[in-house]
Structure formats: C-alpha cells, structure tokens
User: What shape does this take?
Amino acid sequence: VPCLTVAMVKTCVATHLFQHTWDTCTAAFWRKYPNPFSTHVLALDTISRRYDPKDSTLESTRLMVKTNKKPKWMDRWFGDTTAFVIEHSLVDLKAKIMTTFTWNITLGTYMFVKEKSVYRVSSENPNWTECRTEASVSSQLSIGSLVERFGVERFKYNAKKSANGLLHVIDAALAPAQQALGQTTQSTTRASISVLPQTVLADQPRMA
Assistant: This one.
C-alpha cells in the first residue's frame, strides 16, 4: 500500500445518524454511486469480493476514480487532480458492523487522505444507524500545512455530501412503497464534524 511517512497529520472526525435501519443503510451503500451529491466520483469498479459463511463476513475491495476542484493557489503544485482511490470494506452480518477504509494511491506526495468509516446500529434507536468517519490528511510539499488545512475543509464538505448521497439512494429505493402509502417524506440525518489534534490515525499505513 503506497503511503507517506510524515511528522504531522491533520485529523478530523465526522459522525452521522441516519434514521434508517442498518440493513437499509448498508444495502444503499453498495448502490451509492452515481448520485447527484457525488459528481466528483467519476468511476467505480469492484476488484475483489469474498464472503465467509463461517463468520458471516463480506470483504470487498473497490477502485474509485475521483476528482475535486482546487483553489487557484494550488495550481503551481497541482496539475490534474484526478486521483485513484482504493476502498476496502468488511461487513460483519452477525454483529451488524460495516467498516470501510479508503486511501488514494495517486497524488499521495501532494496530499494523502486516509479515511475509516464504521456503520453500526445506533445506541439511541435500534432502527437507526450511526456512522463515524475518521480522516487523516498529510502532505510532503513545502506548503504542506496549507494543503492539509485545505484537505480537512474539503473532507468536512464532502462528508456532508456523502451522507446526503446515501440518503438520496435510500429515498429512491423507498419511494415506490412510500408513494403507495401516500407518503412523501424526505430522509434527514444529524451530523457532527470536528477537527482533532495533529495525531496519526489508528491503522495508518506507512511507507516502508
């Protein structure tokens, strides 16, 4: 796994509470793209998928192609911002916990972003789902601190869009049943996003 070894890493946490069951949210996760809130995701392909009947676990690896707009001051260091991103996930059907890891395998010298998301049944309501996403952002550029701050702000912005994208897929899947019942409700989510001290995330990969 190509990653960076850095002294300082910006970290951020986003939590979302979806008022839908874990089964509904995780099923929607696999059909999340495309959606109008994630137009920066250009392509998505499954590399591998393995189900273990003994443990009732599903392990998957997917490759995504993403792009993001950048501020003008980055033009000197960044050209094309299209990046290839690996998504590795593990779904524990018995425990009802889905854990996903994503990290970019290109442009890592400029900005390396590692995310870990955990979807589990909400402790507040067994029919709801909570998702906690931890992200780390690092850069090896001479203006690394500026790039890292930009990366954190971009993560906070994309975290909201990601949640809205999942809700969009859920609403689309539930629409026929809701229409049959004469309902037109739109899903919402409660969110909390915070920036943490500069520490390395747990499970942070490193370059040999």
